[in-house]
Specification:
heterodimer; A: about 325 residues; mainly alpha; Ammonium transporter fold; about 0% strand; B: about 450 residues; alpha/beta; 6-stranded mixed sheet; 4-stranded antiparallel sheet; 17 strands; about 30% helix; globular
Chain lengths: ~325, ~450
């Protein structure tokens, strides 16, 4: 018997699972740096988060929806990694699991699972934890490169935290900050996956090479933020507004490369993506410079996530043979 | 040299052109041929023969019924043993003239000499008449009767003839081989069409993955004024009419309009070659070049010159000794071809290839959820949004479908091909077009 089907009879080798696997590979440099810098504390968070996310998705599919579990598409692993990357090293296991629950069960599966969620699940998990457990979420172990087994961790403030809490009479002085090189390679305090700009850039290049994402969202996002930040810095002349410090510290790079580019929660046309990225950049600037939090990336992306349906119905690509309306 | 291409969407496809170095060989004569009387867009032709009639190669079997129709000729000599409705490659019942082959006698009017006749002595009207009497239709797959495209209607103006040698479909090499082996005849065919259209400008468009054809065509066209070669980027669907016109001339056929509205006529190289043979050699369209191929199901893929009406099985037997391994028989290429219900369906004027897939390759992967990656929209050569079309179809929202310009879909299959969730987006698009057409009636 011959098989019958409609055209086309060929498919690209790329599948959803393949895309997720590429994202996981792209996240590896940041993971390695996180483990080297923070040691066992980071490993514990990453393992808990990934296992928790996969488990919750499996439970929801198998026991509640009575459907074939979608955990095979690896997207829960990506969410787990991204959630862990947005937590401080040594974050308690129980709280990490609460984050996984919020990310997978509330932000993803309740909306219909992969492709249907409005907000980035990992960011919803992180923001939930950030608001509910502010103390644990801002307990930052100091970097301790290669001292892997050391569990007796000193804690300290992150770069953005130091800058945010400077008093008015300290603005003119140069505070004690990590060197640019340390900020670039990741030997600084912060969330597990956000510390190394270099590692994130490696992941970015890999995803561009594999055509997983286009350059538009990360470049427009960071570009917009840097532009506003530079103007602010030039007008005030204060070291706490120095753009390069803002670029290399906090979750900007991680957010711009891995979180804002999430397919499901970002617009589907090129112009839409640009508008969305510019919005993320503006909001990050506003929150970092005028808000009460030192960091604004998570909130900025989540707020722009909410605008995606509107952006999608406004920025429609031109159809061949027609004029743009 | 700068490569021409279209700006919107498109994909770089693994082309599987495994037969591009295989010379065209004669497929030989089957015992019985099945010649459908409708191998074109438009009205079925009127049958002129009856059971028991003796026919020769080139004998008229059916007469065009009106302007949008085409003559059909016998491809063999022998006896008409049946005229019946038989299942064709598209799984529809189609009226076919069944001829038992006896010998290989040609109609005496056909010039069988191998020499190339360069001088064009006919007037424009005579050329169009000869094209009509030879039953020529668009051989790239559309099947639009060619005489219509060789006549300029009142109020229309043409300044460019584009001879389409792109063949961007996966696996097919019939046009490629024809350009390599019959370059001069194609160029003369283009000159003939130029004369019929009253213009001086023909462009032969070839994509970069056919270096041999480009080289030969460039050499030949140097001797002919008004025929030039343009090399295009090897991108799918570069051979689609609107994408090709955009690449070559920069003009964009407006939505709902035809190439002639931007003063272009596009003809496939196979059609242009058939025009040469019709006008210069008095030869009706009764045979064509067919690539019979496949990565895993064809051991010895070939480019055949086969008579119209030859059962596919007759050709398949010549490329594989293990037909039991075949899981799917596709008339056409991997992207736009039609999957046939049985191996005995006959080749027609439009069959550019027969693609064989083994059982594994023939199995379509299961569909998963859309992840909104937008690859379908980013790669659509018409700038459509297949994901939105799929949603509108599921919601039975015909108003939305029209706003999504569903009727502009060229059915190239890029969206289904590229979808990582394996959603059959092209099926949704075709369904949407049917819905809109139904509404119009």
């Amino acid at each position: 018997m011959l098989k019958l089907s409609t055209a086309p009879h060929l498919n690209t080798p790329t599948t959803t699972k393949g895309i997720m696997l590429d994202v996981i590979i792209a996240l590896m440099p940041a993971l390695i740096v996180g483990l080297l810098v923070f040691g066992m504390g980071a490993l514990q968070v990453v393992i808990t988060s990934v296992a928790g996310c996969v488990l919750f998705e499996y439970i929801i599919c198998h026991y509640f929806l009575k459907s074939n579990p979608t955990t095979g598409d690896l997207s829960a692993i990506v969410t787990g990694l991204l959630l862990a990357f947005n937590l401080p090293s040594g974050f308690p296991i129980g709280l990490t699991l609460i984050g996984c629950f919020v990310a997978i069960v509330i932000a993803k599966m309740a909306f219909g699972g992969i492709g249907k969620n409005i907000f980035n699940p990992a960011l919803v998990g992180r923001v939930f934890l950030f608001i509910s457990f502010p103390v644990q979420m801002t307990t930052w172990p100091k970097p301790q490169a290669f001292n892997f087994m050391n569990t007796d961790m000193e804690t300290g403030a992150t770069t953005l935290g130091i800058l945010k809490h400077l008093k008015a009479d300290e603005f003119a002085q140069i505070p004690e900050l990590p060197s640019y090189l340390n900020m670039f390679i990741g030997n600084v305090g912060g969330c597990i996956g956000e510390v190394s700009a270099l590692a994130i850039l490696l992941g970015f290049v890999y995803m561009l090479y594999r055509r997983i994402i286009s350059w538009h969202i990360p470049v427009y996002y960071v570009g917009t933020f840097m532009l506003l930040c530079s103007i602010h810095w030039l007008l005030t002349g204060e070291i706490r507004h120095e753009p390069l410090i803002h670029l290399l510290s906090g979750g900007l790079m991680l957010g711009a490369v891995f979180m804002a580019t999430d397919y499901t929660t970002s617009p589907m046309s090129k112009n839409g993506r640009i508008v969305y990225a510019i919005g993320c950049g503006i909001l990050t600037y506003v929150i970092r410079f005028y808000g009460i939090y030192p960091e604004g990336v998570s909130f900025a992306i989540l707020i722009m996530n909410a605008f995606v349906p509107l952006i999608d119905s406004t920025f429609i690509p031109r159809v061949f043979g027609t004029r743009r309306k | 040299m700068e490569l021409k291409t279209f700006p919107m969407g498109g994909i770089h496809l693994d082309k599987h052109k495994i037969t591009s170095d295989k010379p065209i060989i004669e497929a030989g004569l089957p015992e019985i041929v099945y010649i459908p009387i409708k191998q074109h867009i438009g009205a079925p032709s009127k049958i002129k023969v009856q059971k028991g009639d003796k026919v020769k190669v080139g004998t008229l079997l059916a007469d065009a019924d009106g302007i949008v129709s085409a003559d059909v000729h016998s491809s063999v000599s022998g006896e008409v043993i049946k005229i019946d409705d038989i299942v064709d490659a598209d799984a529809y019942l189609s009226t076919m003239v069944v001829i038992k082959v006896e010998g290989d006698e040609f109609e005496p009017t056909i010039d069988q000499s191998p020499e190339i006749k360069k001088e064009i002595t006919f007037s424009a009207e005579e050329i169009v008449k000869k094209i009509r009497e030879s039953g020529i239709v668009g051989m790239g797959g559309a099947g639009y009767p060619t005489p219509i495209k060789a006549t300029i209607l009142e109020g229309k103006r043409v300044n460019t003839l584009i001879v389409n040698g792109i063949e961007c479909e996966a696996f097919l090499t019939a046009d490629d081989r024809l350009m390599v082996e019959r370059a001069e005849e194609i160029v003369i065919g283009a000159k003939i069409l130029n004369k019929a259209l009253g213009i001086q400008n023909a462009i032969i468009a070839i994509d970069e993955n056919k270096p041999h054809a480009i080289e030969i065509m460039k050499k030949i066209t140097r001797k002919y004024v008004g025929v030039n070669v343009r090399v295009c980027e090897s991108k799918y669907p570069q051979g689609a009419e609107k994408q090709l016109i955009k690449a070559i001339t920069g003009r964009e056929v407006p939505s709902g309009k035809l190439p002639i509205d931007v003063h272009c006529i596009v003809q496939n190289v196979g059609t242009v070659h058939a025009i040469y043979e019709a006008v210069q050699k008095n030869k009706p369209l009764f045979e064509r070049i067919i690539t019979v191929t496949g990565d895993n199901a064809a051991e010895n893929p070939q480019n055949f010159r086969a008579r119209i009406g030859t059962p596919a099985s007759f050709l398949i037997k010549q490329v594989t000794t293990h037909p039991e391994n075949i899981g799917k028989v596709i008339f056409g290429g991997g992207m736009m071809g039609v999957s046939a219900v049985n191996m005995d369906a006959p080749v027609t004027k439009l069959t550019s290839g027969i693609l064989l897939l083994n059982d594994e390759d023939a199995t379509k992967p299961p569909e998963t959820a859309c992840i909104r990656c937008a690859r379908c929209a980013d790669s659509c050569p018409m700038g459509l949004r297949p994901f939105a079309i799929a949603i509108a179809i599921r919601n039975h929202d015909n108003k939305e479908l029209k706003q999504l310009h569903i009727m502009d879909c060229i059915e190239c299959g890029t969206c289904s091909f590229i979808c990582p969730a394996r959603i059959p987006l092209l099926d949704y698009c075709k369904l949407g077009k049917m819905e809109i057409r139904k509404q119009k009636k």
